[in-house]
From TrEMBL:
This is t-SNARE coiled-coil homology domain-containing protein. SUPFAM superfamilies: SNARE fusion complex. CDD domains: SNARE_Vti1b. Its main location: membrane. Belongs to the VTI1 family. Residues 66-128 form the T-SNARE coiled-coil homology domain. The chain crosses the membrane at residues 137-158. The lineage of its organism: Eukaryota, Metazoa, Chordata, Craniata, Vertebrata. One of its GO terms (molecular function) is SNARE binding. The gene is VTI1B. Keywords: Coiled coil, Membrane, Protein transport, Transmembrane, Transmembrane helix, Transport. PROSITE patterns: T_SNARE. The keyword Membrane applies. It is a single-pass type IV membrane protein.
């Protein structure tokens, strides 16, 4: 029901109400048939007034229902917007977690390679340490041999005559 129709109904109701207020005074002053006629008109007007009042009540209910529906629609729209935002946030988090996982995988691979390199380095250092010890031992033997030869040469040259 449009506002124009509501205004028309309101005007009808007002005019009926104004007529109904005047009729009881006229009934008191009238006699016989005119009195019956006025009572009949009064009853008709009351029926019309009740009908208009009922239409107004229905319109009020309709307006309230429309308002509730509008509020519910707005609430649904807000909920949909929130759901879309949450969906976007979830997507962003999943992407970020994927990137972090890739980063962790690369770090783990680097650590594995570093561990392998450390193992190789230990083996090389042990081998170098063994060679150093072997070289020191050989050098010590050579020095002792040279000292023995030098001692023998000195003994033979100076003490053995």
């Amino acid at each position: 029901m449009s506002s124009e129709e509501f205004e028309k109904l309101h005007e009808m109701y007002r005019s009926l109400y104004d007529e109904l207020k005047v009729i009881p005074d006229r009934v008191v002053r009238s006699q016989g048939e005119e009195k019956k006629k006025l009572i009949r008109v009064f009853d008709e007007r009351i029926g019309e007034a009740q009908e208009v009042a009922q239409l107004q009540a229905q319109r009020t209910l309709l307006l309230q229902g429309t308002e509730v529906l509008t509020n519910a629609s707005q609430s649904i729209e807000r909920s949909q917007r929130i759901a879309a935002e949450i969906d976007q946030i979830g997507t962003d988090i999943i992407e970020e977690l994927g990137e972090q996982r890739e980063q962790l995988d690369r770090t783990r691979d680097r650590l594995v390679h570093t561990g392998e390199n450390l193992s190789r380095s230990r083996k090389i250092l042990r081998a170098m340490s063994r060679r150093v010890m072997t070289n020191k031992l050989l050098l010590g033997i050579i020095i002792i041999l040279e000292l023995a030869i030098l001692g023998a040469v000195v003994y033979l040259k100076f003490f053995r005559r």
